[in-house]
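Hey, resending since the last one bounced:
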Amino acid sequence: MPYLFHISFYMEKKLDQNLRSKRKNLICQLVEDECYIPMKEKELAIFMQVKPEERQEFKDVLSELVREGKLQVTKRGKYLKEDRSTEKLTGTFINNFRGFGFVEIEGRMQDLFIPSVLVRRSLRFQKNMISL
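The structure tokens again:
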């Protein structure tokens, strides 16, 4: 009897992974469509007819796609296709008392200059991600 439970648990887990994979592919196809308009998580869930009890799993799928670099989230929480035209780098921000600063990136010979109009509330020697 325990053997049958193990098989049914394995099959259920495999079905969950297949469903998760299908959802990820469907979201990617939707976002890549030229008619797609960026939507928030709740709007996407409604559009894709995700049941309220499955919303957390749906949120996890969206987060996973963001981590994989297939989606990006705007400041307003809308999901869109990851923009591959910009290069993202991580470096240490070093500010100057005059308001401007530099980002020191490991492995690059030159630091990146950041004008004072783009420096917000970054702290000295703070790790930041920048887009070129």
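Residues 87 and 132 are 5 Å apart (CA to CA).

Sorry for the duplicate.
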